[in-house]
Amino acid sequence: MILNEDKALKVAEFLLQIKAIKLKPNDPFTWASGIKSPIYCDNRVTLSYPQIRTYIRQGYAESVLDYFGKPDVIAGVATGGIAQGALVAQELGLPFIYIRSEAKAHGMGNQIEGYYEEGQKVVVIEDLISTGGSSLKAIEALREAKLDVKGLIAIFTYGFDIAHSAFADAECPYVTLTDYETMLTKALDNNLISEDDLSSLQEWRRNPKDWK
């Protein structure tokens, strides 16, 4: 689910403009998993552009309130969701915590950093959803700490079926500020891709492992 169509198009335009999203259907990237991908997304780039950073922060905050109500705390997923989550917490005047990918092997051995109390309502901030694995691992850690996870918000999702299924199985609703299909619409409108590119990019999203 996206925030709304007009704002989703605007966020997609920003991501393409600053090359947080790069499209190379004829010279694909290779992900760590070995999958060939015509798209590379690094939403950390948005933090370097104050106007865009502000628009995204406000979009996050609006989504928190509209979809989940005001929580007790905002949680960011390491690493991409930490800075975004802190900005959202500041916008909403809420406490902030973040979740490591795994517990520290030294010191207090924390996986969740920051102050929280059992039973508090939390909305999770992520920058990107691909398969959903890292996001759901963070949600599991929060639930194990007896926090009440209301849902998750990210800037962008590829819209993979595996992610939809994983979030449904975890009974965790999520919202994104924009998504893959919206981004393709904006890229085509701005002549960043051709109709042939569009077909290839759509086919990749449907079946990334066998693409090309």
Written account of the structure:
- The protein has one domain (5-210): Rossmann fold, CATH 3.40.50.2020.
- It is 42% helix and 19% strand.
- The protein is built from 7 helices and 12 strands.
- The chain has helices spanning 5-17, 50-68, 80-92, 133-144, 161-169, 180-189, 195-206; strands at residues 21-23, 29-30, 36-37, 39-41, 73-77, 96-99, 112-113, 121-125, 128-129, 148-154, 156-157, 174-176.
- The strands form 4 sheets. The chain has a 6-stranded mixed beta sheet, sandwiched between helices.
- β5, α3 (80-92) and β6 form a beta-alpha-beta unit.
- The longest helix is centred in the first third of the chain and has 19 residues, at 50-68.
- The mean pLDDT is 94.
Would you summarize the structure shown here?
The protein is α/β, with parallel strands linked by helices.
Short descriptors:
single chain, 212 residues, alpha/beta, Rossmann fold, 6-stranded mixed beta sheet, two-stranded antiparallel ribbon, 7 helices, 42% helix, 19% strand, globular
Strand-helix topology:
Elements: H1 5-17, E1 21-23, E2 29-30, E3 36-37, E4 39-41, H2 50-68, E5 73-77, H3 80-92, E6 96-99, E7 112-113, E8 121-125, E9 128-129, H4 133-144, E10 148-154, E11 156-157, H5 161-169, E12 174-176, H6 180-189, H7 195-206
Parallel strand pairs: 5-6, 5-8, 8-10, 9-11, 10-12
Antiparallel strand pairs: 1-4, 2-3, 6-7
Helix pairs in contact: 1-6, 2-3, 6-7
